[in-house]
Amino acid sequence: MFPTTEQIEVAAYHLWERRARLHGCDRQDWEAAEKELIYNLNYGPVREYGLLVPVPQVLGNQAVRHCRLCERDSKRARFGPPSPVFPTVPNLSLLTAQICAECQHECRDPLAEDLARFWDSLRSADALGDTGVKRRTNRGFSLGAYKSLVASALLIMPDREISYFLDTIEWVGNSDRDADHHLFAGASCRVYLTADRPHIPAASLARRIDEDALLPYMIMFLSYEGIIVQIHLPLCSKDEDLEGGQVPLPERLFGWGYGRSVEYAHSTLMPLAAPGDVGRSQGRRSFAECT
Ligand SMILES: [Zn+2]
Questions:
Q1: How far is the CA of 137 from the centre of ligand 1 (A)?
Q2: b (16+ CB within 10 A) / e for 228-267
Q3: How much distance in Å is there from the Cα of 218 to the middle of ligand 1?
Q4: pLDDT tens, position by position, 148-200
Q5: Deepest of 25, 90, 210, 223, by most Cβ within 10 A of its Cβ?
Q6: How many angstroms is it from 108 CA to the middle of ligand 1?
Q7: What is the pLDDT of residues 259-289, one digit of tens each?
Q8: pLDDT per residue over 19-34, tens digit each?
Q9: 152 Cβ neighbours under 8 A, 6+ residues apart
Q10: How far is the CA of 66 from the centre of ligand 1 (A)?
């Protein structure tokens, strides 16, 4: 669903008011309004978690635990202590009890290093601005980093959505890191740099609410250290109409400030690196062992 001209006019007017009615940014505000409207008309929130809350939150910490990847429960599989949902930021306060020890060891731990390397490359790019993003990070978005983020998204997903992602779970649960690379030839993530205006660390899922829109069904945002990464959750049964082409990632408007200090985050589409383009260790160390 696309916004009407009248809807964009109203939204752009509100952005202009936020600028204390200062002139000179009409085109920027119009484009920002259109972008945010396209997102808001087509997506609704599913889940959002703060990642720096005083009391750690443990997802799925029930008497009988269920693994999101292999579907075994704690009567049939061994479960270790709750593990970070986002292994690249292990000191944060969102944990999950919904992954068995075997899946954690075989499917999650080996990818933590890929994700840590990707995030490190974004930190370097942040310091260098847009040019840095293009020069230094196109090689960082590896299939392993993507898979790790998708697994995290599955771990925060409400039960009612899981049935649309059975193929996704099968892919994430496959410990062969190079399997199915061809399926993701057109995949990208979107990276927003908020420079010296870090957002509160958070992770959120949103889903398409317009059934007819040719947009991906579910997307995740991970915000940490002033960097926001947006991914599409692949292999969803609700995305069959999107097969065969690149998935368009809807862009959000992240802005801050008032009056003359209004700014919008710059975003960059980052394609998935081809196999062999990402220099990575073949080791299987966990993030904790790397630090
Ligand atoms: Zn398992």
A1: 32
A2: bbbbbbbbbebbeebeeeebebbbbbbbeeeeeebebbeb
A3: 23
A4: 999 999 999 999 999 999 999 999 998 776 667 778 877 889 998 876 666 67
A5: 223
A6: 10
A7: 888 888 888 888 888 776 654 433 333 323 3
A8: 888 888 888 899 999 9
A9: 85, 86, 87, 203, 220, 222
A10: 8
Residue 19 pLDDT: 86
Q: What is the pLDDT of residue 265?
A: 83
Q: How far is the CA of 111 from the centre of ligand 1 (A)?
A: 16
Ligand 1: distance of its center to the CA of 220 in Å? 22
The mean per-residue pLDDT over the stretch 119-131 comes to 67
- For the segment 30-47, the average pLDDT, to the nearest whole number, is 93
Distance 67 CA to ligand 1 centre (A): 5
Question: How many angstroms does the Cα of residue 21 sit away from the middle of ligand 1?
Answer: 55
- What is the distance in A from the centroid of ligand 1 to the CA of 79? 8
Q: Taking a C-beta distance cutoff of 8 angstroms, is the pair 119, 149 a contact?
A: no
Ligand 1: distance of its center to the CA of 202 in Å?
25
